[in-house]
Amino acid sequence: MTISEIIQGMLAPGIMISACGLLLLGMNNKYSMVVNRIRALDEEKRKLHSIEGGLNDQQKKRLNSIIQQTYKLAFRVKLVRNAVISYSTAVALFIMTCLSIGIQYTLDNVNFTGAVIVFFLLGMASVFTGIIFACHEVIKGYEVIKIEVRES
Q1: Would you give per-residue pLDDT tens digits along the chain (152 residues)?
Q2: Number of domains in the chain
Q3: H/E element, 48
């Protein structure tokens, strides 16, 4: 094997590492947005609870909406966390794929073909798992928007 063939063999897992990096960037941004929304709603809830003399009907309605949204947003954070863990696991598996390819080509008496295939397939399965969590999170995000719109 030539060095160019080794590099070509490592190219597919390398591209998947880059793709997972983009997915992770998007999920980390989403995580930040959801957490900031939870904090804003909690601050609004604290302000409503500090109103002396009790809440009027509109304020009670808003408080109920905040409680519902916060519950659903907390679930969304878990889904985003699971997607991030899945994508991060995929990156680790693709790195293991690259390392296995490198070891196989540098050590003549070692056959890591099975390990290469297993690491790569597990990495792809982990990406797929992350996509499922991300899709579920989008569906839950729509439910939060429905609560907000219903309140208006």
Answers
A1: 677 777 777 788 889 999 999 999 999 999 999 999 999 999 999 999 898 888 899 999 999 999 999 999 999 999 999 999 999 999 999 999 989 888 888 887 888 889 999 999 999 999 999 999 999 999 999 988 888 888 66
A2: 1
A3: helix 3-49
Report the distance separating Cα 141 and Cα 132, nearest Å.
14
Cβ neighbours, 10 Å, residue 103: 13
Contact assessment for residue 142 and residue 46, using Cβ atoms and an 8 Å cutoff = no
Domain hosting 95: range is: 3-151
Alpha carbon separation from 9 to 1, 20, 80, 135 (Å, rounded): 11, 19, 32, 31
What residue type is assigned to position 117 of the chain? Answer: I
139 is written with which tokens?
């569906």
